[in-house]
Hints:
By secondary structure, the chain is an alpha/beta fold. The protein is 33% helix and 13% strand. It is built from 16 helices and 13 strands. It has helices at residues 29-32, 35-40, 46-53, 59-71, 81-84, 98-104, 106-111, 189-202, 221-231, 246-249, 251-254, 257-273, 291-302, 322-335, 359-369, 439-455, and strands spanning 139-141, 144-145, 151-155, 208-212, 239-243, 276-281, 307-314, 339-345, 380-385, 389-392, 398-400, 405-408, 428-431. Iron/sulfur cluster binds at residues 160, 162-164, 167, 169, 173, 214-215, 245, 282. Iron/sulfur cluster is lined by residues 160, 162-164, 167, 169, 173, 214-215, 245, 282.
Amino acid sequence: MIEQPYVYRHSELVEPDWRRLPGWAAVTAADWESAQWQRAHCVKNIRQLRAVLGDGVDEAFYSDLERDQAERATMSMLLPPQMLNTIVPRKAPSDPGFTEALYADPVRRYMLPVFSDRRTDWPSHPYSSRDSLHEAEMWAVEGLTHRYPTKVLAEVLPTCPQYCGHCTRMDLVGNPTPVVEKLKFALARDERLGAMITYLRANPGVRDVVVSGGDVANLPWPRLEAFVSDLLTIESVRDIRLATKALMGLPQYWLTDEVRAGMERLAAKALERDVSIAIHTHVNAAQSVTPLVAKAAKAMLATGIRDVRNQGVLLRGVNNSTEALLDLCFALLDDAKIMPYYFYMCDMIPNAEHWRLGLSEAQYLQHQIMGYLPGFATPRMLCDVPYVGKRWVHQASRYDTDHGISYWTKNYRTAVDADDQLALAREFEYYDPIYLLPESGQEWWRTKSAEMAKADAAPAVLVRSA
Ligand code: SF4
């Protein structure tokens, strides 16, 4: 037997027993599997979290959480029971060491961040910003980001059934928090969705539409079905991707009769028109892949859609190891039939430095996972470079590791650089977390950020709008 850095073992998926949590000790399987019950029992605040976890958690944890919500959180708390149940899946709150396990848990780290998780030296990068990918700047019509020549992102709604602490769309998605007001759509929903369809009809160069938000699971099914049906009438549209983390956070929704029957209708229309519909989900840790998640993914595949794919986010303390990433990819692929597709580097939003990896770390992880998964299921690690777009982590044209600045080029124009003659010759920058840099690089940033503050040149790091 040759010794390997990673040892593959097939692991059975497990639905953690929710009855270990005092607040759900009497919940029946029928309730648990009901999407309505799950939505009605989402945990939205510390009082509700206490009611579920009971007295087993140290008070210090709740104070830590409360301080984070008041001073740092860019997303409000929203956890469906399904998702909360995958945190510390093998311990009850009354077991010794539960609070320590809660602090260390990978799902807790990004779904329920606490103040002590965050960096105090550089909580935010000086160039972090609330719409770090400038998506709203590239709206062709409200909510429709036209950032690549042949594809668009349709933000059909600004809410999700769950809110992730590191959400890249924290500018738009979710409820306001004490530190972030949210951007509001000006148009009413149907007017906005109608304008998107009109734009796509008038722009036959677009063949690929990512239907996102938010999370499409929060759009009433008939409205989502009508929107996708409209897309299917546009001659140029060949690929439709539905973005939903809820396939993992609220699989019960994707298992409802209404959604399964509706997806079957859409899949049949798509087949007739030679269009591919896929679901793109967002799973960051192997423990989130439970039998119910696998059942929902397979139910969607059974409707006749093309694929279910995963776009995870590389997050420190969650999945920044070869083992965590490969365990997750095999859990997705083996029993849930979800295709590992991408891992994004966490975007440069405020208060995210503790989650973000440096480019060299992402390059290392890409190297380490090669060769274990089938080639078609080996995810690419991507840096989403502002004003450029998604780039494979090994595509940087230069990398200054002392200052933590990588340089990237682009090979297409967007509306914002349509008149920029140098856009395709220019280098665009991306920044590593400063605390990872050698002392000389950190000193350079201290000086630079003081100058930026003086000149008021930095994008607002604290994000409450006037
Ligand atoms: S599900 Fe996606 S859009 Fe919603 S909060 Fe999480 S990362 Fe943001």
